[in-house]
Amino acid sequence: MVAIQKAICYHKLGRHSASCFTSTYTYMRFYGLVEVFLSQIPNFSELWWLSIVAAVMSFSYSFIGIGLGIGKATEGGHSRGTIGGSIFMEGQIFPGGIDNVWTVLQALGNIAFAYSYTALLIEIQDTLKSPPDECKVMKKANLIGISTTTIFYLLCGCIGYAAFGDDSPGNLLTGFGFFEPFWLVGLANAFVTIHLIGAYQVFCQPIFASVEEWAADNYPKNQIIQRNFRISLPILKSVYHANIFKLVWRTSYVFLVTLFAMILPFFNDILGLIGASSFWPLTVYFPIQMYISRSKVQKWRKKWIFLQTLSLFSLVISLSAFVGSFQSVLKDLRTYKPFHENH
After folding, report:
1. How far apart are CA 162 and CA 156, in angstroms?
2. Which helix (H) or strand (E) holds 229?
3. Alpha-carbon distance 56 to 102, whole Å?
4. Which of 152, 207, 221, 307 is the most exposed place for a label (fewest CB within 10 A)?
5. How far is CA 88 from CA 16, 83, 252, in A?
6. How far is the C-alpha of 116 from the C-alpha of 58, rounded, in Å?
7. Per the UniProt record, which residue ranges are transmembrane (predicted)?
């Protein structure tokens, strides 16, 4: 949302170096307010429409970014990349010093975050109806989802690097790699905003459900937790079952997350940190161990060795990404002042 306002400002002034200050915190508070409202959606199964909207938005801004990148890459007079990039240049490994090492490791964390969706698989599978068998549907969905994600990541990464070379911004759209056509850049950023609104709920609803189920099981006689109030919604021709505990718990969660984001607004760094922390245990280790146990794979057989090697390799990647992302957060904290914006 900040990027949209800045893009309009740059276009009006006709100068990309113009001072177009926009408060990030104002939009953070607005975003948090929207999420407080959407968090009152009862459960994961009722998010189907929001998931569809988020998916459409994701494809839309990805295609726009790829198209703008192709256009930029075919132009002359811009920075060219090298085969080695930040890792190998002019016969030297990491010519930019240790900072380049941290940047590469942080990038691994960002990529890992995109594949750390396993916590949602059980929730998604729980909403499926059979026949066909839920496992077969999920295997097919996994294959399509991972393949599509990988293709888009490769396209955005390769085309973005072809367009900007070693000067590629951390975010092709909000980092102002593109300024014109301003309306298309603004539209893409609007799609990003809508996608993030939906993605927030997709990731948070399982957390809401887990805490609420725990509270209901442990406090079966507590009226605040157990009692629902029927609220008629004539416009929607439906009835909403309000619950005091859910209202307070979900609102508090969104408030704390929003406050944390305002205190530490280091998007790429925090993203890498979360991705590195969750990728190996949730996406690699537990699924592999469950498969070994269920299929009764014997130790030291070829399949067992392959799976354990894959798990160990993923662990090394996760640890490296965590170190790189953590170092980036520490670097930002050295110069950052909470709730202070540079004009």
Report:
1. 10
2. strand 229-233
3. 33
4. 221
5. 31, 8, 47
6. 17
7. 47-70, 143-162, 182-203, 247-267, 273-292, 304-326
Q: Is residue 308 part of a domain?
A: yes
Among 109-113, 188-192, 203-207, 305-309, the minimum mean pLDDT is found in: 109-113
Q: Which helix (H) or strand (E) holds 256?
A: helix 244-263
Residue 279 lies in a domain: yes
**Sign of the alpha-carbon dihedral angle for 70, 76, 82, 86:** negative
Give the predicted TM-score (pTM) of the model. Answer: 0.76
Interval 1-11 mean pLDDT: 71
Top pLDDT among 193 and 17 is at 193
CB 7 within 8 A of CB 185: yes
Give the chain's length: 343
The total domain count for the chain is: 1
Q: In terms of pLDDT, which residue wins out, 179 or 211?
A: 211
Pick 14 or 158 by higher pLDDT.
158
DSSP label at 298?
P
Does residue 341 form part of some domain? no
